[in-house]
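Subgroup meeting minutes
Present: P.N., E.W., G.H.
Scribe: E.W.

1. P.N. recapped why we're keeping a running log of single-chain structure predictions: easier to compare across weeks, and new members can see raw inputs and outputs side by side.
2. G.H. added today's entry (498 aa).
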Amino acid sequence: MDQTRTTAPSTPLAAALALAALLAATPAFALDVRQHDGALPYQSDLGRAFVPCTAPNTVTLDGKPACAPAVTSVCKYNHSNLHLRGDSRSAPSGRMTMWTTTSPAICDSEEYVIETGLRYSGDFSAAGVEAPCPSGRCTFPDRVASFDQLGLSAVLTLTGGDADVPKGNFEIRGLTVFGPDGLPMVAPGIDEHPLALRFFGNLTVPIEPCTSGPVCDLAPWTSPCDFESGEVEITRAAYTNAGLARVRMRNVTGTSPLCQSGIYHLEATVRGTVKGCGNPVDLCTLPDTTVTIPLPVDGRDIDAGGPLLFASHPNLRYASTQILGVRVIDPTGLPVAAVGVAGPTVLPEPRVTVKGDALRVRTTIPIGGPDVRIDPAADPGLTVTVSDRDGVVYTVTIPDVRWQLQPPLGSRWTYADQNGVLNGVRKARVKRLVKKGVTHGYDVDLQAAGVDLSAADRASLTVNVTAPVFVDVLGVDDLFEWQGTRTCKGTYPKLTCK
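Output recorded in log:
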């Protein structure tokens, strides 16, 4: 794997996130991702991390190969956690914080290193830069990136040298903080510490690895099943400190009947350390292993899980469960989801209906505040794109000069043309939503007819909306893009996705 080493940026997290919220790439068909419903798509307590067991020299009380002694950094801490979120133009960013690092002296005075394992793709097809792969939608080889952490709190940009990853999809395949002594100290997961209780990760589209070159064209997502959003939560069981996994996936559907009637499986790759080699209180680390948990479908949703067990003797105590990677496998045996972070900004619950050659798209753009506004009557206008896994189903740009400003100015814009000159659009409307004097979003409603929609042959549709955004207090204006996916009922020529 390619390895880079950079210094973590010193910009405060708030400034970094504000910058991400103000900038966006030019409109384009984006990668297929699945966004989380909440504000933080990846967050975890950090438990004690250990050196991997690659040459077992002992066995656990239940006979499993292990390495003893379990090796970890000499540095100690009271509590540590990690929050990550996506960025529409670059790598995910976030904050990692540790409290009360103690003796020996190097733990207070020397730097730490954060190491991430990633598999990721980006959409360079309209990013204004030369695409690193022929299709413009590119997957990078699995890599490890390292960052110096100069204090007890750090702002992270996960890819290191590849900071420019427009509208990316990032599968997180491990993260470890190394102490100044060069040994693993903490990692996402759970352990015996009273505050190392919970791991939470968004489910997005799984990425096939790039193994044929320095950068590869994005491989197709081959699972016949689909979903709108989902997450994995792993919490600590009080009686053994083992993990309890729970998977939620909403509006599961697909082209195979098994997608709504079969058994899915959670595959969690973990590094486990237990008290239970020789003397039951001796720590030993097991080789990295994948734990599988069945997940039955309940109608159109999954809400299931079970214990995350990699050892089973009644006298064993789970000292640490490091979460290295999580995937969901569909009932046909193909990956359908993976824990990760997506770059596109969430467009919550878009609604799409297709009836023959007629299309209607309705959604709400989640933007607000006294100083932030959109204006479709500003150059270059507003773009709506509907796509599925295979590519664009429908797209149109209504230029700035075509919008009619309705009173009160700045609150409502309309477009009407019974001839449908702009790719069949008969009418469109943008309306500002105000509550107690504060803007909290903009409704978008577009209706088109007489257009070829036969490419809508998948189980879900993704809506992208691009519009000019103005931040008056900063004097900033730029294009901004929002993306949301809905699974559909019916098949072409009659689809309802809401």
